[in-house]
């Protein structure tokens, strides 16, 4: 049985070289064709056109001067450059034949290369994983075979890449780097010929080797394969134990990714390194975190956090997409730092909010230091400054619900939202304004879902919390109206706004009105539900009638049509409620009181509405 397995492994190993040989032959044939094509091109360019070789300069006869204006184009007598038509024909022919040649080159030079490399890689992997028992190649011999194949790949890749064999060289170098990681993993996890400490040291060396090769060849492929092998191997090497070299190794890999990114300006490399590292830290946390490893976690995550905090100071991105990705990376690093502090301080929860706020303060201080460090690169300094400041402000917003509870969070978020929008308008910063809108949305959701206790998560005394709930709700409503006023003032002052911001005046006013109606309805219902559902429905009808009339009155006073329409809509909703719900639930006396009271209010509102519409106004109706 062992002999059959060995033969199968040998056959698998042979399929790779066969494909690789075919790839090399195709590559050599393509090179010969390219050399032949270049020689033909040089011969064609060296040949002199017959018309130019025999043409003799002729004396130009000047016609007598004429007093009539010339109707001929000033350059009409110039002859066109020679061989224009043949050159265009050759270019057209080249464009016509390019797709076929490119497809052939791609199949012969790229696809066969990767198929051959993958075949040899998997064949070597199967050979490293098979148990050979007492065979002389068992264990250490298998590892040496894997390393030998890797060295052969790397040496051949360097040789071919030096002779302009781009695809073949990259394939061999990438496959060789992956085989080095695979051999180290097999030596430690399968055959146990080396310990974990030695394995981590060898993995660091393999990562360094891959980085050097990627820099030397300018190959993103080699860099990506090296990073993948460096981050995946620890998952298989130490899945359950807290090895002391785990975090130092991860920090070494990330430092290498940052240095390669600075040297070659490959921003995608550090983005992949950050995402892979976040997964490794979460995996380690789930498997190995405990009271004995808290110091190790703090030191390891702290070093990684500092590394990505310093990255924008030393690296830059020119492409807009990668600039955006770098900004998201700074925000993600700050969020990861805050999440780590929240989990790490689980035994002292009162420090969670304070530590998150201090972390946000660190980012704000760094934002103030950025222009001093990057004063010669204004655009870059300004972008980094805004990213750091927004990260710090976002962490400050996160600290509020971590440290405080219920209405205090709503109050803090509402005030912070107005400050952010105001700063964004003063500094012409879209990022500050967008963050302010998000914080305001969270404040409204928090007040509606938690402060008013509509979900039943917290049951407290209505009398104790009535004032503070109203205060938080009114502050949120005032924040919405304040932002609407601030945007209108900025538009009049000529501040450049987003299209949605320029049209947000009326929607914000209606949002404030709707949220105040929700607050009023919940408070009326909670205050009267103890006396029964029918009393609560009756009180709700009267509250809606009064609030609808107030909206119409304010709409007339401010000459603001949207408010009047909102009031009319609320009154129509009240009528529907009375004739569908109240009429079937209220008893006879309550029904009479409800219909008569609401009817009188509607008549008064109708009278005021008609008088207001007949009153002449010199001001233009807003929103009409």
Automatic annotation (TrEMBL):
Which InterPro entries does the UniProt entry name for this protein? DUF2339_TM
Alphabetized, the UniProt keywords read: Membrane, Transmembrane, Transmembrane helix
Pfam families the record matches: DUF2339
Q: Is-annotated flag, keyword Transmembrane helix?
A: yes
- Looking at the UniProt entry, the stretches that span the membrane are 6-28, 111-130, 142-160, 172-193, 199-216, 221-237, 243-262, 269-285, 297-315, 322-344, 350-371, 383-404, 410-427, 434-450, 470-487, 508-525, 537-558, 565-586, 592-609
Where does the record place the region Disordered? Answer: 40-83
On the tree of life, the source organism's domain of life is Bacteria
The answer to keyword Hydrolase applying to this record is no
Question: Would you tell me the protein name for this molecule?
Answer: DUF2339 domain-containing protein
Q: Per the UniProt entry, what species is this protein from, by scientific name? A: Eiseniibacteriota bacterium
Taxonomic lineage is: Bacteria, Candidatus Eiseniibacteriota
């Amino acid at each position: 049985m062992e002999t059959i397995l060995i033969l199968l492994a040998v056959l698998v190993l042979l399929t790779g070289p066969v494909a690789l040989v075919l790839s090399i032959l195709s590559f050599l044939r393509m090179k010969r064709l390219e050399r032949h094509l270049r020689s033909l091109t040089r011969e064609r360019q060296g040949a002199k056109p017959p018309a130019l070789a025999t043409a003799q300069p002729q004396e130009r006869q000047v016609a007598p001067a004429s007093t009539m204006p010339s109707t001929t184009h000033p350059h009409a007598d110039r002859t066109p450059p020679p061989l224009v038509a043949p050159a265009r024909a050759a270019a057209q022919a080249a464009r016509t034949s390019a797709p076929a040649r490119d497809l052939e080159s791609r199949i012969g030079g790229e696809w066969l290369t990767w198929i051959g490399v993958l075949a040899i890689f998997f064949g070597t992997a199967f050979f490293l994983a098979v148990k050979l028992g007492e065979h002389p190649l068992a264990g250490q011999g298998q590892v040496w075979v894997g390393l030998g194949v890797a060295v052969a790949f790397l040496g051949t890749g360097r040789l071919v890449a030096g002779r302009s064999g781009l695809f073949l060289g990259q394939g061999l170098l990438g496959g060789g780097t992956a085989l080095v990681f695979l051999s180290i993993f097999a030596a430690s996890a399968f055959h146990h010929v080396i310990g974990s400490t030695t394995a981590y040291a060898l993995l660091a060396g393999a990562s360094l080797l891959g980085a050097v090769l990627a820099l030397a060849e300018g190959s993103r492929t080699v860099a990506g394969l090296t990073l993948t092998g460096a981050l995946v191997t620890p998952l298989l090497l130490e899945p359950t134990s807290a090895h002391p070299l785990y975090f130092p190794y991860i920090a070494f890999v990330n430092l290498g990714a940052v240095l390669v990114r600075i040297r070659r300006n490959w921003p995608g490399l550090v983005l992949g390194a950050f995402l892979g590292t976040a997964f490794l830290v979460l995996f380690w946390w789930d498997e190995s975190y405990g009271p004995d490893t808290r110091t190790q976690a703090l030191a390891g995550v702290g070093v990684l956090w500092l590394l990505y905090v310093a990255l924008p100071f030393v690296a830059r991105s020119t492409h807009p997409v990668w600039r955006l990705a770098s900004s998201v990376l700074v925000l993600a690093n700050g969020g990861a730092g805050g999440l780590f502090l929240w989990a790490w301080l689980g035994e002292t929860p009162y420090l969670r909010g304070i530590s998150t706020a201090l972390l946000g303060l660190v980012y704000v201080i760094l934002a103030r230091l950025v222009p001093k460090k990057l004063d010669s690169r204004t655009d870059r300094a300004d972008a980094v400054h805004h990213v750091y400041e927004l990260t710090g402000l976002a962490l400050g917003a996160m600290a509020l619900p971590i440290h405080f509870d219920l209405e205090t969070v709503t109050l803090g978020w509402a005030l912070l939202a107005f400050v952010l929008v105001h700063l964004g308008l003063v500094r012409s910063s879209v990022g500050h304004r967008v963050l302010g809108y998000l914080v305001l949305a969270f404040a409204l959701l928090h007040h509606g879902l938690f402060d008013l206790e509509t979900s039943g998560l917290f049951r407290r005394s209505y009398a104790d919390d009535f004032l503070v709930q109203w205060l938080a709700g009114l502050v949120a409503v005032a924040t919405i109206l304040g932002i609407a006023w601030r945007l209108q003032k900025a538009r009049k002052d000529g501040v450049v706004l987003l299209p949605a911001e320029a049209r947000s005046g009326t929607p914000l006013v209606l949002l404030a009105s709707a949220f105040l109606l929700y607050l009023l309805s919940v408070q009326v219902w909670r205050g009267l539900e103890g006396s029964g559902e029918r009393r609560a429905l009756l009180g709700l009808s009267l509250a809606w009638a009064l609030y609808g009339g107030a909206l119409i009155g304010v709409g007339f006073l401010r000459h603001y049509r949207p408010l009047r329409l909102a009031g009319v809509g609320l009154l129509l909703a009240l009528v529907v409620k009375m004739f569908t719900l109240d009429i079937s639930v209220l008893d006879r006396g309550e029904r009479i009181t409800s219909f008569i009271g609401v009817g009188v209010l509607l008549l008064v509102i109708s009278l005021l509405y008609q008088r207001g519409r007949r009153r002449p106004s010199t001001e233009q109706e807003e929103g009409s």
